Amino acid sequence: MRIETHLAQIGTKKEPKTGAINFPVYFATAYEHIGGVSTGFDYTRTANPTRQVLEQSIAALEEGDAGFACSSGMAAIQTVMGLFSQGDHLIVSLDLYGGTYRLFEQVLSRYGLTFSWVDLRDLSQVEQAIQPNTKAIFIETLTNPLIQVINLEEICQLAKRQQLLTIVDNTFMTPYLQQPIKWGADIVLHSATKYLGGHNDVLAGLIVSKGEELSERIGFLHNSIGATLAPLDAWLLMRGMKTLALRMNQHLANARELALFLNQHPLVEKVFYPSFDPEGRQILTKQARGFSGIFSFRLKDENLVRPFLEHLEVISFAESLGGVESLITHPATQTHADMPDELCQKIGICGRLVRISVGIEHIEDLQQDIAQALKKADQIIRRSGLS
Fold first, then answer.
1. Could you give the CA distance from residue 240 to residue 201 in angstroms, rounded to a whole number?
2. Per the confidence metrics, is the pTM higher than 0.90?
3. CA–CA separation, 280 and 286 (whole Å)
């Protein structure tokens, strides 16, 4: 099946007793051994029928061998990090979600893991960062919040030559746009709270693995750590995923038009969108089928930021992304607030940078909302003499 059909058909033909098109929610935590024999379900942390349908679906969509549903995107990353031991070293995308940085540097470093933060667009930097104890490369592409494009094929080939695992956070792209396992990745992660759920109403994380031995190891960790997804949340996530193709097409169209609009605005210094980066556009055109619905832009004056955010009427100033509603985030004070100032400056995260998750509203309403908010912000700082 093509991916649009697979998405729409999630959960159908899975309930043979009743023929339910919408796969039911199994709230049971324990299951009877009928006739003294396990049905394959013993305890819901280990396996749950509703969660299992979701896990099988994401594995198929990412063309992996096994899927695992977790209670959040961070729980998914924590579960995968259980593969590593004290003294192990990982190479990590320099530009990535601040919550991942916090987990790595403020939690896992206390357990003896070490991390090198590298611009993965430069293969020579990656090679130089490899140490005798390096075990994996952790990749975000697109990166958060500067929307940088990483060449998955090059990184995965390098990792295989060095016998390293490749772990790809595919949250911004989803399997509808990009399937990292096709390019050699071993593990794919999703904060399924975002585009996969799509409605800002469910917290979830997903893991997809390639290879029997690796899948068994992650399955053991998934059960042992226990940060598994609840049945109702699994059902909500599947419901959201059914419309992923339709939603992503609208996200893509709106993001493209809004990025072009902002790129020409006199109060905007720079727009971080793959189409405006010739090298990134070339890579993404090869390894994906679109540029996602999220991008960042830097205003010319930091004094514009606060009044701009305060005067938005349609778009909400809120953390998160990937929902049908457009959301704007200020990385320096929200998603990346726990990162040291020195690292933020190195990456390019400053007080003038804002990130927008473009929803599925009418594009003219979004353009008008940003235009009026920027106009009011400019008027305010001019009156105050701050410009």
1. 10
2. yes
3. 10
Preceding peptide of 206 cis, ω within 30°: no
According to DSSP, the residues that pair with 268 across neighbouring strands are 299
How far is 117 from 262, CA to CA, in rounded Å? 30
Question: What is the pLDDT averaged over residues 281-297?
Answer: 97
Strands 268-272 and 294-299, bridge-based pairing: antiparallel
Domain positions in the chain are 3-241, 244-384
| Residue 145 three-state SS | coil
Does the domain spanning 244-384 belong to CATH 3.90.1150.10? yes
**386 half-sphere exposure, CB direction, 13 A CA radius:** 14
Q: Which residues of 327-349 are buried (b: 16+ CB within 10 A; e: fewer)?
A: bbbbbbebbbeebeeeebeebbb
Residues annotated catalytic, as ranges: 45, 97, 169, 194
CATH code, 3-241 = 3.40.640.10
Q: Phi and psi at residue 80, in whole multiples of 5°?
A: -65, -35
Q: What is the pLDDT of residue 73?
A: 98
CA atoms within 13 A on the CB side of 139: 34
Q: What distance in Å separates the CA atoms of residue 224 and residue 38, rounded to the nearest whole number? A: 20
pLDDT at site 171: 98
CB atoms inside a 10 Å sphere around CB 351: 16
Cα-based distances in Å from 30 to 33, 116, 223: 10, 43, 15
Sheet containing 134-140, strands listed edge to edge, beginning at the edge strand earlier in sequence = 66-70, 205-209, 187-191, 165-169, 134-140, 89-93, 114-118
